[in-house]
Amino acid sequence: MDRPIIEFCASNMHHGTDAVMRRLEAEPDKYEVIEYGCLGNCGECFLFPYAYVNGEIVAAETADELYDKILACIRKQQEERDMLDKLLDDL
User: Fold this and answer.
1) CB neighbours (10 Å) of residue 60?
2) Regarding beta strands 56-59 and 50-53, do their DSSP bridges make them parallel or antiparallel, or are they unpaired?
3) Parallel, antiparallel, or unpaired for β 50-53 and 32-36?
4) What is d(CA 87, CA 10) in angstroms, rounded to the nearest whole number?
5) In whole angstroms, how large is the CA radius of gyration of the chain?
6) What pLDDT score was predicted for residue 19?
7) How far apart are CA 61 and CA 47, in angstroms?
8) Which of 49, 40, 9, 7 is nearest to 25 (CA)?
9) For residue range 5-37, what is the model confidence (pLDDT) as tens digits?
10) In the chain, at which residue ranges do the beta strands (DSSP E only) sit?
């Protein structure tokens, strides 16, 4: 599996996403973490901690919850890829 790409908005750091980003960056073999000045999702950015996981937005009420949701999203995306691979193999 390729490393999931997790993107953060610098303007969202006031929600505590900087700590989430650092936790994920601590495992560079598992995650590709990128910080941008702006991800163009200002409404979400103002209200909640959020990130993009392989292009899919993940938002939560707290930064700790965001971390858990990011990991859950990564697992879900991997499961979906595995199911698709199996389906294609069965064809």
Assistant:
1) 19
2) antiparallel
3) unpaired
4) 39
5) 14
6) 97
7) 9
8) 7
9) 999 999 999 999 999 999 999 999 999 999 999
10) 5-9, 32-36, 50-53, 56-59
